[in-house]
């Protein structure tokens, strides 16, 4: 039966040799050509600067920063950073004008992520004024600390507390120092755990922590439990012993929700094999990062085994028809292989990532994939694809954009 959500994988699997037709020079050339295409699409009107890092121009600024940080693009570095600065400056002005301070605290959909990326770009350019957006970012911790600061759900990745913690983690990685004080991180983690306990108790769940976003009990990375737990594990050193126990119980509960090497988009749903979501946002390609983090923290083999099973599903069903992006597209699938390479050192996963990169530029993909509204965007469009191609050139440093597990 044909799958409506993905292409049939036409490739034979790894036989001990990497794919040679797309070498370093070819990928570098593809990246620079794709960046040129993207920059012609970025809107000039300040009124079009919504969408945050997810699908706004700010995501293009992050992509340019990411390319500029790779040594293979040293000739383009200054020009890319200058363009990134112009875009992020306009994005900062846009969020500064937003009167809704709660929106300003959002990571992928609002100000927190934009301030974070502005600080990274300024620092990369050697500008002392990187401290200005950094201060704006740090001041937002008070906004998202109250337990119900968002009516729609205060804890998920795109707009809630988990996203703010994620942004702080990325900043720590890129700038090389801790951004928030230990007490601030502790307060946000405590609020996340308190919120999850209250919700689980209210809904009479047989497990300790659960959350909802707009009334839906999501499990995936975009809005769900897996990303929340991933960020709590990323800051496990500030948690008390009882809090840590609640987190690990919840991680192990989520493991029991696996169906066909995948996870349903929401709690209690049954996966239909022929129509299952195998996306970073909903499904195994995003949930795998939680179990990767769990493995890195406590080294239990069952967590790595879960990641490996997820990778097998992605190899079968990850050539998605919804576009080239990282949220629910082919590049997002391919990032799972780069993550598994870093966890295992097995070159099979570089080979698989190479094959998915090849497919992104095939006639079959171009003819059969969905068009994307903002084709320049980081999460749905070509900017995420560029980040993936750059990381394919440096697999030992590769990471899904703005979603670090190796810190």
UniProtKB/TrEMBL annotation:
The record's family statement is: Belongs to the LanC-like protein family.
The taxonomic lineage of its organism, from the top, reads: Eukaryota, Metazoa, Chordata, Craniata, Vertebrata
Q: Which UniProt keywords apply?
A: Metal-binding, Zinc
Q: Which GO terms describe its cellular component?
A: plasma membrane
Residues annotated as binding Zn(2+): 281, 327-328
User: Is Zinc one of the keywords?
Assistant: yes
User: Native species of this protein?
Assistant: Gadus morhua (Atlantic cod)
Keyword field contains Zinc: yes
* Pfam families linked: LANC_like
Q: What is this protein called?
A: LanC-like protein 3
Q: Which GO terms describe its biological process?
A: carbohydrate metabolic process; peptide modification
Q: Cite the InterPro entries for this sequence.
A: 6hp_glycosidase-like_sf, LANC-like, LanC-like_prot_euk
GO MF annotation, one: metal ion binding
* Lineage: superkingdom: Eukaryota
């Amino acid at each position: 039966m044909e799958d409506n959500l993905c292409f049939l994988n036409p490739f034979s699997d790894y036989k001990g040799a990497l794919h040679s037709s797309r070498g370093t020079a070819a990928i570098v050339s593809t990246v620079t050509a794709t960046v040129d295409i993207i920059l012609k699409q970025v809107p000039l009107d300040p009124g079009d600067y919504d969408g945050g890092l997810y699908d706004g121009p700010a995501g293009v600024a992050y992509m340019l920063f990411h390319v500029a940080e790779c040594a293979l693009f040293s000739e383009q570095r200054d020009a890319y950073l200058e363009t990134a600065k112009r875009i992020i400056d306009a994005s900062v002005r846009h969020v500064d004008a937003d009167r809704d301070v709660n929106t300003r605290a959002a990571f992928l959909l609002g100000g927190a992520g934009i301030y974070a990326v502005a600080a990274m770009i300024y620092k990369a350019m050697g500008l002392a004024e990187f401290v200005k957006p950094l201060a704006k970012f740090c001041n937002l911790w008070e906004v998202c600390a109250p337990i119900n600061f968002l009516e729609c759900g205060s804890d998920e990745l795109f707009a809630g507390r988990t996203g703010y913690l994620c942004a702080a983690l990325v900043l720590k990685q890129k700038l090389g120092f801790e951004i928030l004080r230990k007490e601030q991180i502790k307060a946000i983690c405590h609020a996340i755990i308190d919120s999850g306990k209250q919700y689980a108790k209210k809904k009479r769940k047989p497990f300790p922590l659960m959350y909802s976003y707009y009334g839906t009990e999501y499990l995936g990375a975009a809005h769900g439990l897996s990303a929340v737990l991933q960020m709590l594990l990323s800051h496990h050193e500030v948690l008390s012993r009882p809090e840590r126990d609640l987190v690990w119980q919840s991680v192990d509960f989520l493991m029991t929700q696996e169906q066909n090497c995948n996870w349903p988009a929401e709690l209690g749903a049954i996966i239909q094999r022929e129509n299952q979501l195998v996306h970073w946002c909903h499904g195994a390609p995003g949930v795998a990062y939680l179990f990767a983090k769990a493995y890195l923290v406590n080294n239990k083999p069952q967590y790595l085994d879960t990641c490996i099973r997820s990778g097998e599903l992605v190899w079968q069903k990850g050539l998605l028809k919804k576009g080239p992006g990282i949220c629910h597209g082919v590049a997002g699938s391919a990032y799972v292989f780069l993550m598994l390479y870093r966890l295992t050192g097995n070159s099979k996963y570089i080979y698989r990532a190479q094959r998915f990169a090849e497919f992104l530029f095939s006639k079959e993909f171009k003819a059969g994939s969905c068009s994307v509204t903002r084709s320049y965007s980081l999460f749905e469009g070509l900017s995420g694809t560029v980040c993936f191609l750059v990381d394919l050139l440096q697999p030992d440093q590769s990471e899904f954009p703005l979603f670090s597990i190796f810190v």
